[in-house]
Amino acid sequence: MLISAALFLAVATIPSPTSERDQLRQSEHMYWRAINTQQIDLWMGKEEVWRLTVSPNCPAWPTGNLTLVTRKGHFKRQQSIVANASDSCRLMRIEPQPGSANHSLPTLKVLTVDVNSPKGNNKP
Asked: Are 99 and 92 in contact (CB under 8 A)?
């Protein structure tokens, strides 16, 4: 019994692994749903869903499609995220969608504007 209690306490003090990411590669088909004034759930296709948290000084979420800023095809933490917003509107966290969240695929699309598109030798 004493060993079980000691083992339980040892396991309980181990921090749970984090699944938070520093960046995401944009997908061909992306959809979104507002959670609150600072969070959206971002679908990367039909099954991969991420919860994005932005800084408190971002504009209100639109009621239609959302245009987000990518850099070389990626959403990156600590960089500006919402197109046509000030540079102080930044992506703060990228984490998996919580299990308790609404998992139905939304209809609102995400469009992207890439600010650092790579250019090949034959591209203008």
From this structure: no
pLDDT, one tens digit per residue, over 70-82 is 999 999 999 999 9
CA distance 51 to 99: 11
pLDDT, tens digit, 9 for 90 and up, residues 37-86:
999 999 998 889 999 999 998 999 999 999 999 999 999 999 999 998 88
End-to-end CA distance of the chain: 72
Q: What is the DSSP string of the chain?
A: -HHHHHHHHHHHTSPPPP--BSEEE--SSEEEEEEETTEEEEEETTTEEEEEEE-TTSPPPPSS-EEEEEBTTEEETTSB-BTTS-TT-BEEEEEEPPTTS--SPPS-BEEEEESS----TT--
Residues 111 and 27: beta-carbon distance below 8 Å: no
